[in-house]
Amino acid sequence: MRVLSKNKLSPVSVLGLIALAVVTFVSPAFAVDIKTVISKKGIKALLVEDYTVPLIAVSFAFEGGTTQDLAGKEGTAQLLTNTLDEGAGDIKSQAFQEMLQDNGMSYSFSAGLDAFSGGIKTLKSESEGAFDLLHLMLNKPRFDLEAVDRMRASRLNGLKRQETNPQSIAGKAFREALFKDHPYSRPTGGTLETMGGLMPEDLEDYRKRVFARDNLVVGVVGAINEEALKAMLDKVFGDLPEKAQLKDVPEYSVKVGEDSHIEFDTPQTNIRLALPGIKRDDPEFYSAYLVNYILGGGSFASRLYEEVREKRGLAYGVYSYLGTYDHAGFLGSGSATQADRAQTTVDIIVQEIERMGKEGPTQEELDKAKKYIIGSYAIANLDTSGKIASVLVAIQQADLGIDYVDKRAEYIAAITLDDVKRTAAKLYSSKPMVITVGRTVK
Questions:
Q1: 198 — alpha (psi -120 to 50), left (phi > 0) or beta?
Q2: Distance between CA atoms of 176 and 191, rounded to whole angstroms?
């Protein structure tokens, strides 16, 4: 993310102060007045108006992400996140950076497996200029060779460091074993070979194929009304192609493979485990979310933390999570520990996974999980305008409904002990795949 500011009390400095006071419009019950806005060119956005502070936050995402990198061009989407602000239109990199700084906006771009995302925050008084600059970045980036070379060199340095990073090595092996030949198995940041070969025309090709109006979702929070938002949507996004040219990404049913160990001379062994899981739209998602929280997603409150760290001191951290992508789902877990403790740590994690499948959670565990997950939502997701804008985007991406924020607590509260036991038995009944990276203890 780039956060640009001038000396003294610049607009972005004011943004930082204002952010501390944002979301006074969120009540203790998390009620948020979300409006659907559609511009003249048919661009849809979800809007939460608030004039408590003169701030506007915009979040957006294009369906596609790194799965739209062409074969042999892996890393394109992620390099694009670094080059969109390196000059646009008739304005070269340095002058464009100065304009961004003078405007005082904060902005970011990111590329995940399923979406290319971005966002800006700006003072209302500076919003017209901020929207002009965002329009230029999305519609007319320059991709001058000097700027692309500079950003690519930075990415290559990162990739070189990953070659000797046990966590990166484990992540690569984990991804390839889990997704086989599916697009999800490819390196999202590319390789030294593919990143080294990327040129400006590759970035422009990706932008033209993926940045379009029919695969776009937008969330906006702050001091802007519906009519002004309609004008902004057409101004920023209205010149994009009507339809994206996305490559088909097939659905994939995760099937875990054989355990594997990668020998690597490092003080700590990196541990990864996986089981087949579910996607976000599965009817059992909320039940699975609660089960995962109890197993290892709840950090200090989880079974894995209690068994691995508290009782035995085997590792500093241990975790589990739901991997819910657009086209596949899996259950993941992991830790890192000294080589001579690695097998014991693996054994304990597997043991707890098996116990969860056989016994499921207790009523006490379920009650505590519900209380925390419901109560922490506003703090984790609704405490800044930027986070709320991101939630508005996520609601659309997962087709959760405009009333999701208000009804989320009801969905979770409705889950019974029978529900979580049934889900636990379904998801944790098989042996997980285990991948380790580290030294073999003789």
A1: beta
A2: 14
Q: Which two tokens stand for residue 75?
A: 């890393």
**Residues making up the chain, counted from first to last:** 442
DSSP three-state, residue 197: coil
Residue 312 has, within 13 A of its CA and on its CB side, a CA count of 19
CA 73-75-80 angle, 5° bins:
110
Distance set, CA 141 to CA 47, 85, 95, 147, 205 (Å): 27, 7, 13, 11, 12
What is d(CA 346, CA 308) in angstroms, rounded to the nearest whole number?
9
How far apart CA 387 and CA 98 sit, in angstroms, is 27
User: Strand order of the sheet with strand 318-324?
Assistant: 260-263, 433-438, 268-276, 329-338, 318-324
Q: Distance between CA atoms of 161 and 192, rounded to whole angstroms? A: 11
CATH code assigned to 260-438: 3.30.830.10
**292-349 pLDDT per residue, tens:** 999 999 888 899 999 999 999 999 999 999 999 999 999 999 999 999 999 999 999 9
The counts of H helices and E strands in the chain are 17, 12
Question: What residue ranges do the domains of the chain occupy?
Answer: 2-237, 260-438
CA pair distance 334, 297, nearest whole angstrom: 11
What does the pLDDT look like over 264-306, one tens digit per residue? Answer: 999 999 999 999 999 999 999 999 999 999 999 988 889 999 9
Show Cβ contacts of residue 221 under 8 Å, excluding neighbours closer than 6 positions. Answer: 47, 48, 50, 56, 57, 385, 386, 388, 389, 392
pTM of the model as a whole: 0.91
Q: H or E stretch including 15?
A: helix 11-19
- pLDDT beyond 60 at 17: no
pLDDT single digits (tens) 50-90: 999 999 999 999 999 999 999 999 999 999 999 999 999 99
CB 11 within 8 A of CB 19: no
Class of domain 2-237: alpha beta
For residue 190, what are the contacts with CB-CB under 8 A and spacing of at least 6? 69, 73, 74, 75, 76, 78, 79, 155, 159, 198
